Amino acid sequence: MTRSRALEGRGPILAVILAAAVVAGVAAWVDAPAKLSVHGGFVDLSVYQYGGRLVLDGLPLYGSRDPATNLRFTYPPFAAVAMVPLAPLPGWLATALWTAVSVAALAGVVLLVGRALGRTFPGWLVALLTGGAFALEPVWQNLTFGQINLLLMLALLIDLVRPDRRWSGVLVGIAAGVKLTPLVFVVLLVLAGRRTIAGRALLAFAGTVAVGFAVIPDSAQAYWTHNLIKAGRVGPPELAHNQSVFGALTRLLDAPPPTSLWLAVAGPLALTAVVLGAVWWRRGDRLLGTGLGALAMLLASPVSWSHHWVWAAPIGLALWERSRSASVAWTAVFVARPFVWPPWGQRREYGWSPIEHVLGNAYLLAALALCVWAAVGLSRRVGPPAGRSDPEPVPSNPPSLS
């Protein structure tokens, strides 16, 4: 291979490194001297560090609040163990490193999407699409809060878009160990006929639970016996930023819905999304199928904050290969973020008019509209995206989805 060809092949990687370094530098500059001086304030990153410090100090994980943000650590015990390396770092350095890794993960998602679509994105296009994704509200909120969603999204896409690797499924299990909601993808894998990968994911998840009990047994017991069912502990469910079925019902009813009602609504919607995802996945479009599985995850969770919807980026790119108009409409919703157009906060969501409920549940309604679009596409027996020369192999004797 010539030197010029080698450099050309490394173009996307160099673009990732450059973009991550620039954004990390900006983040570090903003973080010092006042960590809470910008919107978002990297508050979630501060809580991650606090969780890591509690593990190092041998203190209870769920009995106190981060002094810098007054927020509790709400993730499973394994997540706190994973945050231990961040604990001793000064705020500016943790912010710079975390932002760089997050931007690199976003660029990695772009690269992975390109390969899934049968395209090789040059470095300039990777940088352009990565930078363009910053316009999506879930992405820039994820970055300003210092959230972990971009990293988890990359891990999940690696396992689900490229499931034929030797250790496929392990990353799904680890992601579920950090946040429980990725367990939805185990259901998708089972429905798609990949029981071995699903089993590997469950084993990896069980491993994360075991790590939690081994390192912080008291906190692990507290989480799995008490904290797990306290959905409201993460914030007010009626807040407009909670773009979940539970949040929408709370705003409609002016109070959190009964569990039975929530399950009766969210359960069928999430199941429909994951079944649609499995069918698309089996028909050769693993990218769109995984995106629909992500929507099932967001629909099923009682709390899906707007920054959890970073899946808008790969879904938008997947749609571009099939329907330009659908992709543009989908992307516009997440750029405009209509859910904050009506009055919000301090329970003002309880006074919304019908049109304000439509605007205030924009992400949720966009997800439901996409599920309808996907169902119609299946009824028309749409083939693989234009960029793909051949469909993905379908496993032998897959389970019936009828």
Walk me through what this model shows.
The chain contains 19 helices and no strands. The protein has helices spanning 3-9, 11-31, 43-57, 77-82, 91-116, 123-133, 137-145, 149-161, 170-178, 184-191, 195-215, 217-225, 245-253, 259-282, 286-300, 312-320, 324-336, 354-360, 362-379. It is an all-alpha fold and 402 residues long. The chain folds into two domains: 1-221, no CATH class; 230-402, no CATH class.
Largest pleated sheet: none
Uncertain stretches = 1-11, 31-39, 386-402
- SSE arrangement, N to C: HHHHHHHHHHHHHHHHHHH
Q: Strand percentage, roughly?
A: under 5%
Q: Helix/strand-derived class?
A: mainly alpha
- Structural Rg: 21 Å
- Total discrete domains: 2
First-to-last CA distance: 51 Å
Principal-axes geometry comes out as globular
The count of strands amounts to 0
Q: What helical percentage do the residues reach?
A: 55-70%
Brief summary of the model shown:
The protein has 402 residues and is mostly helical.
